[in-house]
Amino acid sequence: PRVRHILGKVKFSDSEKTMEVCHNTLTNSLTIVPVLEGPTPPPNSRSSPQDNGQPECYLVFIGCSLKEDSLKDWLRQSAKQRPQRKALKTRGMLTQQEIKNIHVKRHLDPLPAGYFYNGTQFVNFFGDKTDFHPLMDQFMNDYVEEANREIERYNRELEQQEYRDLFEQKPKP
C-alpha cells in the first residue's frame, strides 16, 4: 500500500483548535494551519443540530492499494498510547544512585547500641568500620516498601482510567 496524499481536519491533544492538515508523500511537504472559525450554515432539517453534514475531524487518504485495517493500525500508533502498568520494585533493582540517596537521607538516623559515627564512617564496639549506616538494610527495605506503595497507587489509578480505541464509536449521551 502506498499513501500519496493525506488531507483533513484534526485536533491535536495539546490544543482545542481544529487544524487543517495536508501532507504530500512524494514531495514530503506538510502544512498545518488552524481552521478559521466562520459562520456556520443553517442546520439541514434532516440532520441533528450539531451535525452540519461535515464531521468535526476527519482524514482522507489518497493512494494505491490502501487497506482500511492497515491505515487504522498505522493511525493507532500515532494516538496517545495506554501507559503500561509498572512492576513492583525489589531490593535487587535498586540502582547505585538510589542506594546513595537512601544513605544521604538516613545516615544521621539514630545508631543501634554499640555503634558510633566518627564523621566519615560507622564504627562498632569491636572497632570495625563501614561506610554505610548499620541499619542500611532496613532503610533499603523501607524505601522499597514506600516505592511499591507509590507503584500500586499508580497502577490502581491506571486501571480506573478509560481508554478507548481510536475507531470505537463513542456512546451517544
TrEMBL record:
Region spans: Disordered? 33-53
Lineage, top-rank taxon, reads Eukaryota
**What Pfam families does the database record attribute to this sequence?**
CobW_C_DAAF9
Name of the gene this protein is made from? Dnaaf9
Q: Which organism is it from?
A: Mus musculus (Mouse)
InterPro entries per record: DAAF9_CobW_C, DNAAF9
DAAF9 CobW C-like domain segment(s): 5-35
> This chain belongs to which protein, by name?
4930402H24Rik protein
